[in-house]
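To whoever is on call:

I kicked off a structure prediction for a single chain this morning and the downstream step that reads the tokens threw a length-mismatch warning. I double-checked the sequence; it's 342 residues and nothing unusual in it as far as I can see. Pasting both halves so you can look.
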Amino acid sequence: MSFRHIQRMPSSDQIIDEISVSAELAQIKQQRDQQISAVLTGKSDRFLVIIGPCSAHHDDAVYDYVTRLAKVQEKVKERLVLVPRIYTNKPRTTGEGYKGMAHQPDPRQKPDMVKGVKMLRWMHLKVIQESGLTAADEMLYPENYAYLADLLSYVAVGARSVENQQHRLTNSGLDVPTGMKNPTSGDISVMLNAIKAAQMPHVFIYNGWEVDTGGNPLAHAVVRGFTDKQGQHITNYHYEDLSRLAGVYHESAMQNPAIVVDTNHSNSGKCYDQQPRIAQEIMSNRAYSSLLKTTVKGLMIESFIEEGSQSVEGTVYGKSITDPCLGWDASERLLLDLADLV
């Protein structure tokens, strides 16, 4: 075996004891969880928008961003529920490149995962303190969720993870919404099977324990486009795509059918500036179809302070070092427009 033991990871209980949540912040999270869940279950007719940088690599810029987002949330609170997208783990198709704050608290320094899990917990905690908003993060590693379980209000399972058994079973034990993305192949049945699995109870091994779960009725679909055999981007956000998925979804008799549309990735052909156009089309189709109105419950948008992206060595404040994002001005305009279209 070629594994080299670097340092023992602290348990989630140790990290939570060290970086604890006050009663006041716990109450904020409870209220936010209820607001988000109400949208997905149809108890609220507000619209969900999960918005933020492709990856959170600079904590000060993240605090700046969520503070701005909180001001917009106050303006649109009757129509939209805004969830900061704060992704601290990054899947890498080839294994190369920046893997996120959990690996590298400083993207220019070597990995340090003990420091990383502490840093991401501090950051999510301070986001709530600074903005009153609780965030979404991607479940790249199921075990890492335990470090953030009392802070996150939304969990995303990515296109490369949605077929993984451990991701599906782990999400069956969560009490917050989990968005299951369609795989990179575009096979919708894979995503629907993942949702069904996450909504069922299971017994399995998690973090060294045999555990059982009750199933998560808030597991739902996230469509992000896909690539064909030639590597071309294929969209799945148009009227016909969403109507077909909504029909199959409702026929499946799963709990709380809900679709969130990712406006970037293959849906935009990796062209971040197309996201406002795509969002406008989706809202127009919701207005036209009662089926889509009651099933398409939200959007995912990649956005940061500065538009575009830069290399890991880049020094532009508030600019993504992974996928390019909408800038703040365009993002704010889009959110205000969306509130008018709900």
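Update from on-call: the warning came from a stale cache, not from the record. Cleared it. Sanity check on the structure: Residues 12-321 form a domain with the TIM Barrel fold (CATH 3.20.20.70).
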